[in-house]
Specification:
Blueprint: E1 12-17, E2 23-27, E3 36-41, E4 44-47, E5 52-61, E6 67-73, E7 78-84, E8 87-92, E9 95-104, E10 110-116, E11 121-127, E12 130-133, E13 138-147, E14 153-159, E15 165-171, E16 174-177, E17 190-197, E18 203-208, E19 214-219
Antiparallel strand pairs: 1-2, 2-3, 3-4, 5-6, 6-7, 7-8, 9-10, 10-11, 11-12, 13-14, 14-15, 15-16, 17-18, 18-19
Length: 232
């Protein structure tokens, strides 16, 4: 275990790492309560700056060194950003005043969430500079946390009437409730968040077990099965 240090303050948090061992996160300067996004590479912690405000946090990095996260702007509005070679770009929003980027794949596809013009928080996919609203599972809120090289996305969304949150898989232009994809082994579990997806389609998620306790779970695709038995 290696301590990556700080910018002089008491705290630093790492959020992402790529295959080269480059690490991103946020850290604090001495006497400051405003965290700054960092890139830790070749033994050095580098301040990535901001979009004009005072706070920034880096959440993900791909193998090309593309970094995503969120930063306050001059108007102190949190906006998702993409940073490469020291240049930070504002990704904008879905029409509202807030956006946050969580994940980026090696093709440069970026996922996160943003406020819409109607004031709803929706998951987004940013590809080639265009931010797309991924919608929800029937409620008013969704968040995307991870995207693999096939463009498959996982996250969490409220369902009809916002009564609960369910994990989702977004693939081929459609958002699917993860609970509808599990077989008999998942009976009694409620998957509320898909946190990460790899290139094999395996999904790390969070679920409530039959006793209402939170558990980390792994969802493994079954090849050759057209439709698994739905979760009750």
């Amino acid at each position: 275990m290696n301590d990556l240090g700080t910018f002089g303050g008491d705290e630093s948090i790492a959020w992402g790492i790529n295959d080269r061992g480059d690490v991103v996160g946020h850290s604090f300067y001495a006497g400051s309560e405003d965290g700054r996004a960092f890139l830790y590479s070749k033994g050095s912690m580098i301040d990535l700056g901001t979009l004009g405000g005072v706070v920034s946090v880096a959440r993900g990095i791909n193998n090309s060194g593309g970094i995503v996260g969120a930063s306050t702007t001059l108007n102190e509005e949190p906006h998702a950003f993409y940073s490469m070679d020291g240049s930070m770009i504002d990704l904008g929003t879905l029409g509202g005043l807030l956006s946050v980027a969580y994940g980026i794949n090696n093709s440069g596809q970026i996922v996160g969430y943003s406020l819409t013009a109607q004031g709803q928080l929706h998951a987004f996919l940013d590809s080639d500079g265009s931010m797309r609203d991924l919608g929800t599972l029937g409620g008013t809120r969704s968040e995307a946390f991870s995207v693999n090289e096939r463009g498959q996305i996982v996250g969490s969304s409220s369902v009809a009437a916002d009564v609960a949150f369910h994990g989702f898989l977004y693939s081929d232009g459609s958002m699917t409730d993860l609970n509808s994809l599990v077989d008999e082994s998942g009976v009694g579990y409620l998957i509320h968040t898909g946190t990460s997806i790899n290139n094999a389609g395996q999904i790390a998620a969070q679920a409530l077990n039959p006793n209402g306790e939170t558990r980390a779970i792994l969802l493994i695709p079954r090849r050759g099965v057209e439709k698994a038995k739905p979760h009750p």
